[in-house]
Amino acid sequence: MNTGSESVTVVGAGYVGIVTAVGLAEAGHRVRLIETADDRLAALEAGEVPFFEAGLQEGFARAVAAGRLAIERSIEPHAPVVMICVGTPIGDDGRSDLSQLRSALEALEPLVGPETIVVLRSTLPVGATRKAAGWTSVPTSRLFTNPEFLRQGTALADFRHPSRLIIGCFEDADEAALSRVRSLVGVDGVDTLVVDVTASELIKNGANAFLALKLSFANELAGLSEEMGTDIGDVLTGISADPRIGSSYLKPSFGFGGSCLPKELSTLAVAGRSVGLPMHVTAAASQANAAQQMRFADRLAVLVGGLQSRTIGMLGLAFKAGTDDVRGSPAIRLAESLIASGAVVRAFDPAAMANAKRALPELHTVPRAPDVFDGAHALVIATDWPEFATLPFDELGARMAERLIVDGRRLLNAPTLRGLGFRVSTVGTGSST
Ligand code: UDX
Fold first, then answer.
1. How many whole angstroms separate alpha carbon 137 and alpha carbon 135?
2. Protein residue whose Cα sits closest to atom 7 of ligand 1
3. pLDDT of 326-383, one tens digit each?
4. Atom of ligand 1 nearest to the CA of 325
5. Would you say 200 and 145 are in contact if contact means Cβ atoms under 8 Å apart?
6. Beta bridge partners of 30
7. Is 260 assigned a catalytic role?
8. C-beta neighbour count of 55 within 10 angstroms
9. In sequence order, what are the beta bridge partners of 407?
10. Distance in angstroms between the alpha carbons of the first and the last residue of the chain
11. What is the three-class DSSP state of 85?
């Protein structure tokens, strides 16, 4: 990691902003983290990271205690480097909302100095940087992008050990400014790719859409394996043995979620439509993800003999293990559809219950994992938290109305559970005895 001595202003204390601020402070830079939302600002000033992310609370406290990270409400005049990490959420029309980006640039405007460098680190739809250039007096020669590839649950590790670094610049990039950005975000031993800003946007969008495509393909093959009475685990072992395919990021589930992958598919589809390209593969990945989730809900309904007045125990609400985030979570969508079909859903998640209740107020949550078994006609594994795999199923099965387990994450050992008298249905496995 380059040891730094740059003074950096990070705008936006969301997932990306706080991880970036802590990571840069750890690298030795002096960081000011700007947040304008009162509640989030108050939490940070009280020393609290307002979401669950392994190691981030400790890293944040260390950086503040070391005097390398300060929380501010506004950008300082003539800030040398301003890194914008605000959210670009997807609207109902599938387009990215750039209003937070525009507001950040407008807030910066009266404070721009003759040397100020701006780095856009927010997730940007293709074309956004060229549009943003019109919202600031900072010349394009000092306007850069630096897309991040952080995964929630391992964000700090991903910041410290990126697989690659991307810097997007305009044709008239100032060499001295570019080298300051390179030394700021650079990591020893990791290649930094400098490309035009549009390429940097498509790299981010395209990388995430490709990951989503891999998952939708694996999930579709899992459905076919179920219907054909075989096991996707064996199928993918054989397929991924080809080094051109590989085995990473191919774990089937009843659907993928998060604030990123689904969004990137939508962003690319919108970009394609804007230039008359239908983006068939991207659209198919989205459709397959939706279909996989509906298929799982239908299968559960059949297995319990109809959902009306049934009690369903759900383990997991977050969109993946290691986070409290429920944005785009298949678990939340499943709970919502079960409740709409007249089932009683009783759910537990180690980190995401508060966020889940905000997203789905009618959801009933229980304080401990074993409580979801009480009176349940089926138990659903909806998020792959490792601790769910080590529960005392034999003892807990006695608390269920029916010993049925439906594993949406291929987390559990079905043969062992069948030996304990459970009926087990696993995504991607043909038998549902
Ligand atoms: C993703 C990208 O990985 C990251 O590079 C980008 O910067 C942000 O979006 P994230 O959404 O945080 O990161 O988590 P990720 O681990 O990619 O999982 C996304 C979804 O895919 C989750 O619902 C997860 O459960 C699911 N998933 C992931 C699978 O179902 N199977 C897998 O093999 C991997």
1. 7
2. 149
3. 999 999 999 999 999 999 999 999 999 999 999 999 999 999 999 999 999 999 999 9
4. 12
5. yes
6. 7
7. yes
8. 13
9. 381, 426
10. 53
11. coil
What separation in Å is there between the alpha carbon of 249 and the centre of ligand 1?
Answer: 8
**From ligand 1's centre to the CA of 223, what distance in Å?**
20
- pLDDT tens for residues 243-268? 999 999 999 999 999 999 999 999 99
Choice from 236, 320, 334 to test ligand 1 binding pocket (greatest atom count within 8 A of CB): 320
Give the residue carrying structure tokens 């000033």.
Answer: 45
**Which residues line the pocket of ligand 1, CB cutoff 6 A?**
148-152, 208, 211, 215, 249-251, 253, 256-258, 260-261, 319-320
Q: Point out the ligand 1 atom lying closest to the alpha carbon of residue 152.
A: 12
Q: Hey, what are 408's tokens?
A: 């949406």
Locate tokens 């594994």: which residue? 381
Q: Write b or e for each residue in 314-341: b if 16 or more Cβ atoms lie within 10 A of its Cβ, otherwise e.
A: bbbbbbbbbbbbbbbbbbbbbbbbbbee
In this structure, which residue's CA is closest to atom 13 in ligand 1?
Answer: 151
Residue 223 structure tokens: 């459905």
312 within 8 A of 376, measured Cβ to Cβ: yes
Q: Which residue has the tokens 């393909």?
A: 217
List C-alpha distances in Å: 102 to 105, 108, 140, 316, 385.
5, 10, 16, 36, 38
What pTM, to 2 d.p., does this model score?
0.96
Tokens at 163, concatenated: 């697989």
Catalytic: which of 197, 218, 260, 261? 260
Can you tell me which atom of ligand 1 is nearest the CA of 249? 33
